[in-house]
Amino acid sequence: MAYDEGLAERIRERLGADPAISEKRMFGGVAFLYRGNMAVGVTGDDLMVRVGPEATDAALARPGARVFDMTGRPMRGWVVVDGAAVAEDDALGAWLDEGRAFAGSLPAK
């Protein structure tokens, strides 16, 4: 599956200056890891965000967010955000900050 390279580039621009960020192809898209833990990714036209189990319900209440379900089994702690919902830089930045904050709460790999 192809992924939205434009969205990936916007993420690179926003996160690229941080030396703790690395990039890895996975899930048919691209993932951005913070200190070795996945924080966000792009799959198709959408943004995947790791928010953590405790923040899942609040994240799902935000515009464009839905349950992350790639295998028929929803993954608590992750959400998928419709690409249209992150068209504005402020909206994208808020999601990126949230994903990076959760990944940063985990032990570095």
TrEMBL record:
Domain TfoX N-terminal: 19-100
Family matches, as InterPro entries: TfoX_N (IPR007076)
Pfam families per record: TfoX_N
UniProt keyword Ubl conjugation present: no
Cross-referenced SUPFAM superfamilies: YgaC/TfoX-N like
Example of a GO biological process term: methylation
Domain of life: Bacteria
Example GO molecular function: methyltransferase activity
Coiled-coil regions listed: none
Keyword Nucleus found: no
Record keywords: Methyltransferase, Transferase
This protein's name: RNA methyltransferase
